[in-house]
Amino acid sequence: MRSRLALLAFAAWSACGLRLATAADPGTPAARADALVPALMAKHKVPGVAIVAIADRQIAWERYYGLRTAGQLAPVDATTRFEAASMTKPLGAHVALKLVEEGRLDLDLPLRAYLEKPYLDGEPQHLKITARMVLNHTTGFPNWRPGGWLKGGPLAVASEPGTKVSYSGEAFTYLQHVLEKITGEPFERTVERRVFAPLGMAQSSLTWTDAVAKAAAAGHNAEGKVPPARELFHRANSAYSLYCAPRDYARFLVELMRTDRSAPHSLSADTIAQMLTRATRVDGTPPPARQGGPPPGPAYYGLGWAIEESASGDRIRHGGSNGTGFRCYCEWYPARGTGLVIMTNAAGGAALWREVIAQIGEP
Questions:
Q1: φ, ψ (nearest 5 deg) of residue 8
Q2: Helix (H, G, I), strand (E, B), or coil: what is residue 338?
Q3: Fewer beta carbons within 10 angstroms: which end of the chain, N or C?
Q4: Is the CB of residue 339 less than 8 Å from the CB of residue 253?
Q5: Residues 6+ apart with CB under 8 A from 93
């Protein structure tokens, strides 16, 4: 009986989104999303999806579909907390670049210089790693050490730092250690003061809290089912531990696109330009394709973001994928002041957001 009620709630919620679209131009991105997403959720076994779009450098529309947890009644809505996964990394980049502006961090000074002792024992190559290498993914670190960062297993540098792309969460963890040394406070406190509070991101946290628990979506596997156990992040990690409502993340993108850079918490125009300068070419996973548009060109890392050409100017993007069952994506266009945040609560969400991006086009 409970499962049937959940299905009815899901159908009613999806239908509500479709009714909202009937009053809009059927050719708008919002209407196309309403026509596409429910079917894609069924196809890819994704219980819940949230989409927030930006136009004219402000939040323009948002859509919420499905359920926070399969088999339960709570719908995905504007308060639902998703795991943003690797979309946490741009927050770390933002804090680091702000400290560079303040003269407290040098992008090209080895991070070892900020610590009382080496971050790793018996690994001389890591002594060369700089903040710039972390932000453009050229440290030589693997994504994660065997067993994960919390277990503190051996971590080796696989390639000469600064010479080739090696996407790494471990590198951001190393940088976080340095940022905490510089600021004298936990990373989560720095982000709360410098990002969450000034941007009004009241539904964001880098750790699991009672407030997160009350509004959290559950992660789901490729079959759309909740795994028997879920890892909860009680320690902040700048590589993946952000819990947030999608609207909050859109606020962060809006901040990066503001033409007025004078607020104390804002990065300067010069810093934004440096952040979005191509540094290292990204190989491997192809950029998201757009139906009817030109094939995507090569992507590059700047400082904390991937950058690629598009018909509307540079597209800045980042994805997120946590083993707990969340797949998320965001992109923004500095020249146009547009952007998009998509968060899903299942492993099938990566295929879903790629299809959404392909079919609704650039925001």
A1: -65, -40
A2: strand
A3: N
A4: yes
A5: 135, 275, 303, 304, 305
Its pTM stands at 0.92
Quote the CA–CA distance of 15 and 11 in Å, as a whole number: 6
CB crowding 143-168: b at 16 or more within 10 Å, else e: ebbeeebeeeeebebeeebbeebbbb
- Residue ranges in the chain assigned as alpha helix (H): 2-22, 29-44, 89-101, 131-135, 169-183, 187-191, 197-199, 210-215, 246-257, 269-275, 349-360
* Cross-strand bridge partners of residue 333: 338
What are the pLDDT digits (tens) for 223-263?
999 999 999 999 999 999 999 999 999 999 999 999 999 99
Nearest to 188 by CA among 141, 121, 238, 261: 238
Angle at CA of residue 143, ends 140 and 148, nearest 5°: 125
Per-residue tokens: 188: 């989560």
Q: Pick from 145, 247, 234: which is nearest to 199 by CA?
A: 247
Q: Interior CA angle at 66 toward 65 and 72, to 5°?
A: 155
